[in-house]
Write a structure and sequence with these properties.
The complex is a heterodimer. In chain A, 36% of the residues lie in helices and 13% in strands. Chain A has a single domain (11-250), classed as Alpha-Beta Barrel (TIM Barrel). Chain A has a five-stranded parallel β-sheet with strand order 3-2-1-8-7. In chain A, strands 4-5-6 form a three-stranded parallel β-sheet, with helices on one face. In chain A, strand 4, helix 3 and strand 5 form a beta-alpha-beta unit. The termini of chain A are far apart. Chain A is of the alpha/beta class. The longest helix of chain A has 21 residues, at 211-231. By secondary structure, chain B is of the alpha/beta class. Chain B has one domain: Aldolase class I (TIM Barrel, Alpha-Beta Barrel), CATH 3.20.20.70. In chain B, 42% of the residues lie in helices and 14% in strands. Chain B contains 16 helices and eleven strands. Chain B has helices at 2-9, 13-21, 27-34, 36-40, 42-57, 95-107, 126-137, 152-161, 175-181, 190-194, 196-202, 219-236, 264-277, 291-297, 334-343, 358-361, and strands at residues 60-70, 76-77, 112-117, 142-146, 165-167, 182-184, 207-211, 241-245, 282-285, 304-306, 347-349. In chain B, the strands form two sheets. In chain B, strands 1-3-4-5-7-8-9-10 form an eight-stranded parallel beta barrel, surrounded by five helices. A two-stranded antiparallel sheet of chain B has the order 2-6. Chain B is globular and about 60 Å long. Chain B starts with a helix and ends with a helix. The chains are: A alpha/beta, B alpha/beta. Chains A and B meet through helix 2 of A and helix 5 of B.
Chain lengths: 254, 363
């Protein structure tokens, strides 16, 4: 459940960086996703047709507009309002990113933007640094989920923020969607094994040599990780569990 | 930097190999990659540059178009077709003419327009620039400027009018050579120009474009200086995206001949080095280069391309009514460039920006 809506798939995918809209559509289908994020700055809201949204079947996928390009709360709020007035879903992925190199989100402006957008009736999903206190603050404001990063966007470096993600997952009462930095399906599986509710993947699929095949691989990775979380893993030990105890000869001598 | 250049000049294959496998190169490692030893490893460099570009930018190319506002110029520069003494037809577009040019470009699909102008304080002053930005902003969500260096207050005014980026090429980073080519007018001031992008960044300009006009000085020196400048700006202007470009001198009115011509192999070496050394920088490639070369350079690190460009004021609506800055090599239409990109497996992105003017955006 996310924002009062049930989803079968726990894989959310992005729409940037594809070499053609057709390849993107194939990858979306192969991923079996139901939630697709799209950058508002790439869409011409006044135009009758668009290179991205024309290729996204509204009956299969819920469109999740994002505020990529915004560097302040006000810019993010304006983008969300533009999207809503153009008839897009009132779901919004809040991205407030002042740093063009590592693309790190601004925690203060993100919180501010989320407060405004939740009050305005949006279903708000904020992209954040893996900061457990910020995650709780956003939950208090009323966001539908939190979306902490695993490592910098597009870096493919995997769960560099693992220790912080574990705290966020432990404490959260809203869904935790691990977003950004997942480079291969094993990263996505590992995030799901930690107990994440879903993951968001874009670059790892779009920039793969075969995007549709990689989308399928991520679908399987997410399923495997989720199944493992539900199965409950055996404890991790630093030593082997001996089958022949060294103190066995003492039995009965107590 | 001179020391890095000297050490780089004698770099051997081992040093170049170490530089290429050591992650983002230092200035010294960059010098090794620019050396003849680096040239021997060009294919390796190109493969890495390609992978890094796809990872960061995907298989997409952002499309833009220049819109020339004026060729009236108070500067005397040896290589430029707008240079003050030259006998060409001079023109500064009126607001209506600017609007017509912008609408023509928008009809061709462009949503990223770069306003370009020669430097004449009488015809192209702050007010004129601000009105021009506002006019073009009506049809294009992204408006950049490639005009005279300005002070911070002027840059603030441009940002308030909707300026999203400033491109300002140093032309050459060698002060003595700079002096030999910039003989008169406000552009003579080397340091005023050198510091301009930092002022623009301080004023809130979101995209800063640095570049050197290849052919004026030794290309290896220019490359290292440009890299140093870009990295300096990355630290100082942490909110601004840094973009780079390496235009080569093309034929223009005045018949200038470059002292230090850069061949295609050297241009590729330069391009690959910049992708390795500045993994997040945009790299623009204009229609100065031939269609054949432009297509081949795309996978090596290019992120922005112009198409169907005109370098004369009013050249889209009424071509032939004013002198042009230089001759263009790639005269394909935007649709033809888009089709060529698609054949190579690249998506030509015309719109990638939607942000309101910063003045009203301040929180």
């Amino acid at each position: 459940m996310l924002g009062g809506r049930a989803f079968e798939s726990r894989l959310i995918v992005g729409t940037g960086k594809y070499s053609s809209p057709e390849l993107m559509a194939d990858a979306l289908a192969a991923s079996a996703t139901e939630l697709v994020t799209v950058a508002l700055r790439r869409i011409d809201l006044d135009a009758p047709s668009n290179p991205i949204t024309d290729f996204i079947d509204g009956s299969k996928y819920l469109l999740l507009p994002n505020t990529s390009g915004a560097t302040t709360a006000r810019e993010a709020v304006r983008l969300a309002q533009l999207a809503a007035s153009a008839g897009l879903p009132t779901w919004i992925k809040v991205e407030v990113i002042p740093d063009p190199r590592y693309l790190m989100p601004d925690p203060l402006e993100t919180l501010k933007a989320c407060e405004i957008l939740v009050k305005a009736g949006f279903t708000v999903l904020p992209y954040i640094q893996a900061d457990p206190v910020l995650a709780k603050r956003l939950e208090d404001v009323g966001t539908a989920a939190v979306m902490p990063l695993a490592s910098p966007i597009g870096s493919g470096r995997g769960l560099k923020m693992k220790a912080a993600l574990e705290i966020i997952i432990e404490q959260s009462t809203v869904p935790v969607i691990v977003d950004a930095g997942l480079g291969v399906p094993s990263h996505a599986a590992a995030a799901m094994e930690l107990g994440a509710d879903a993951v968001l993947v874009n670059t790892a699929i779009a920039a793969a040599a075969h995007p549709a095949r990689m989308a399928e691989a991520f679908r399987l990775g997410v399923l495997a990780g989720r199944a493992a979380w539900l199965a409950g893993r055996a404890p991790e030990l630093t030593y082997a569990a001996a089958s022949s105890p060294l103190t066995g000869f003492l039995s009965g001598a107590r | 930097m001179r020391a890095a250049l000297e050490s780089g000049a004698s770099a051997d294959a081992q040093a170049a190999q170490a530089a290429v496998s050591g992650g983002v190169p230092s200035l010294e490692a960059a010098a090794a990659l620019l050396s003849p030893a680096g040239s021997d490893m060009l294919e390796d460099l190109a493969q890495i540059a390609h992978r890094m570009t796809v990872a960061r930018f995907g298989k997409t190319i952002a499309m833009y178009a220049p819109l020339y506002l004026s060729n009236q110029c108070a500067c005397t520069c040896t290589y430029c077709g707008f240079s003050m003494g030259l006998n060409i037809r001079r023109k500064t577009l009126t607001r209506d003419e600017i609007s017509r040019e912008a609408v023509t470009l928008a009809e061709r699909g462009f949503r990223n327009i770069l306003l370009v102008s020669a430097e004449h304080p009488k015809y192209v002053n702050v007010d004129y620039v601000c009105r021009s930005i506002e006019e073009v902003k009506k049809v294009s969500p992204y408006v950049g400027l490639e005009i005279a260096a300005a002070d911070e207050e002027q840059y603030r005014a441009y940002v308030a009018s909707g300026c999203d980026g400033v491109v300002l090429y140093q032309e050459t980073y060698d002060p003595a050579i700079y002096a030999r080519h910039h003989l008169g007018g406000p552009k003579k001031k080397y340091h005023w120009r050198l510091d301009a992008l930092e002022r623009a960044g301080a004023a809130g300009v979101r995209h800063l474009g640095v570049g050197a006009l290849l052919g004026l000085a030794d290309w290896r020196f220019e490359a290292l200086a440009l890299l140093w400048h870009a990295r300096y700006l990355e630290r100082r202007c942490w909110r601004s995206q840094i973009n780079v470009s390496f235009p080569r001198i093309n034929p223009a009115a005045g018949g200038f001949v470059a002292d230090h011509p850069v061949d295609d192999r050297q241009l590729v070496q330069l391009l690959c080095l910049f992708r390795l050394a500045l993994p997040t920088a945009g790299i623009a490639l204009s229609t100065r280069e031939t269609p054949q070369l432009r297509d081949r350079l795309v996978p090596l690190g290019i992120t922005h391309m112009s198409a169907g460009s005109s370098t004369e004021p009013g050249g889209y609506g009424a071509p032939g009514s004013a002198g042009k800055q230089f001759e263009l090599e790639d005269t394909r239409t935007p649709a033809e460039v888009k089709a060529a990109l698609e054949r190579m497996g690249y998506d030509a992105v015309f719109k990638d920006w939607e942000v309101m003017p910063a003045a009203s955006a301040s929180t």
